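#structure-requests
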Amino acid sequence: MSENQLEIPGVKKVIAVASGKGGVGKSTTSVNLALALQAEGFAAGLLDADIYGPSLPSMLGVDEETRPEVVGGNRFAPVLAHGLQTLSMGNLSTADTPMVWRGPMASNALQQMIGQTLWHDLDVLVVDMPPGTGDIQLTLAQRVPLDGAIIVTTPQDIALLDAVKGVEMFRKVRVPVLGVVENMAIHICSQCGHKEHVFGTGGGEMMAQKYDVPVLGSLPLDIRIRQDLDDGVPTLVKSPEGEIAASYREMARKVADELFSDKSDDEVNISIE
């Protein structure tokens, strides 16, 4: 960790989930990945770094009136949701209050959220980044001791072009890219089960090969994923034994292997049932 980076007490590893553009399922991936890591036995937390459009409280079913407990006058206790320690600007403002801030103000707010949250003994903190490569993304990449980044994309050519920018940004600030997640890889008809590659095919794989990183997961365009999040009960909670949950858990295992491959078993909080 450099002298310019914030220390995050109570957190062993920090990973960023990012995308070059919005609408590719980045927050969906962040939520289900954090829950999948938890299901695999890791103590996981989730930070919503999207200052302007915080969505995680709604996705996790947290009431919009819920506020974090203030400790010692200037520290926040994480908001618990489905066993995860979480914090979002959505927990600090009302749903209909826009954050009309310039970039530096939003960056300062993010640094305060990071530095003033009392995370408790986390193996992994998943940070849901805002889309793009602007001020907030650069602040996070430079000021937070990130152990890796995950790039989320769809098979569409335009999404892949933007995802490449995300990879290049992390490379410039010397943050390792752990892999690529391809969302909406295939559409599954809810009526007949027919499968179709409506957004193209192979894009995530080609991008992974270009940058010599693994494809961590390939998720379908499935209405159940959206419905579960709209209900505030993510798929890992709603259908933990289902096929989609299994895909996220496989993704979590790959991420954990990257993060803890050189760690001994007693250095992470894995619960054995």
